[in-house]
Specification:
The chain has eight helices and 13 strands. The protein has 321 residues and is of the alpha+beta class. The strands form five sheets. Strands 7-8-9-10 form a four-stranded antiparallel β-sheet, with no helix packed on it. The radius of gyration is 43 Å and the shape is elongated.
Length: 321
């Protein structure tokens, strides 16, 4: 067998002449691979979002609270530096920012009713009230009255304390009941509604029959009652004296309820100046019952109350109830 040799890897090896000396060509090119990805629709479905000014974010709870408040109330600052809200569609009554039935409490309830039971957080409420107080400071302070007030023309206005805001106006031409007070009034928990006044018979004679006093004392009482409706004059302290069982406490209670009805017409002597300031701020007329000793500080305070002076303490508005 004829054979030839061919060097393979440096070593001579015989090659069969019947076989091809060259192996069949091998396709070393890799098969083409389809690297192109199938087209994918990366465009997301449009989502209907509520319009917003800040990058598509919904307004914060504080912003919503301020918007709700400005739709329903106007905001004023009283002459003693207290912010109040007045309902746009309602009686001419001011609402304090804090306390029972204040603006803060009402806004919290309104927020839950408006936004499907969502509850505003305390920080959101605090931020909203700060903004609203700033709005109240934008305008000049306005007088806010308690039970009785007087306008620039001298007309006296008496708040009946009713929920609908009715009042009595008294001028030189007479008196009448009006459906809405022309002056701003505030309310407190120490106030009760007054009955609507009527004209019937001899009112002074009927009134005198209810008191155990002579004609001279009754005339002084009537003068005090008339002065009690004049807001801008000093009001003397009315004192009832008499033996035990003569009806002093009952007479004092009736007189106070004629001027400023209250669920607690008779009060104990205040223990300190702070307690007195709270009582005086929330009542137009006060009846201090069974006073046996008047300390010097209370004597000075009563003299200030007669002339309309007061004790100012705005810390946390704690004197509003």
């Amino acid at each position: 067998m004829n054979s030839t040799t061919k060097p393979v890897n440096g070593t001579a090896r015989p090659i069969d002449p019947d076989r091809s000396t060259d192996p069949a060509p091998v396709n070393t090119d890799p098969a083409p691979v389809n690297t192109g990805r199938a087209a994918v629709n990366t465009r997301r479905k449009a989502v209907n979002k509520p319009p917003a000014d800040d990058g598509g974010k919904k307004p914060s709870a504080a912003v919503r609270l301020v918007a709700l408040a400005r739709e329903r109330y106007r905001f004023v600052m009283s002459t003693d530096g207290r912010p109040y809200a007045v309902a746009v569609d309602g009686p001419n009554l001011v609402l304090p920012f804090k306390g029972r039935s204040g603006v803060r409490q009402r806004l919290a309830r309104l927020y839950a009713e408006t936004f499907d039971g969502d509850v505003a957080s305390q920080p959101a409420l605090a931020d909203a009230m700060t903004v609203l107080e700033g709005i109240a400071e934008d305008d000049d302070p306005v007088p806010v009255h308690l039970r009785a007030g007087q306008d620039d023309l001298g007309t006296i206005v008496v708040d009946l304390g009713a929920a609908d805001g009715r009042a009595v106006t008294v001028s030189a031409g007479g008196w009448q009941v009006v459906p809405r007070s022309p002056l701003l009034f505030r309310r407190s928990g120490a106030m009760s509604p007054m009955p609507t006044p009527i004209l019937e018979g001899d009112g002074l004679a009927m009134l005198h029959s209810m008191f155990n006093m002579d004609e001279s004392a009754f005339r002084r009482l009537v003068a005090w009652l008339i002065a009690a409706w004049m807001p801008n004059i000093p009001h003397p302290v009315l004192t009832f004296k008499g033996e035990q069982g003569t009806g002093k406490s009952a007479a004092a209670q009736m007189v106070v309820n004629l001027v400023d009805p209250s669920p607690a017409a008779k009060r104990s002597a205040p223990r300190d100046l702070k307690a007195w300031s709270t009582q005086a701020f929330n009542s137009w007329a006060l009846c201090l019952d069974n006073i046996s000793v008047i300390p010097p500080w209370l004597s000075d305070t009563l003299c200030k109350a007669v002339t309309g002076d007061g004790f100012v303490d705005r810390a946390l508005y704690s004197d509003e109830t």
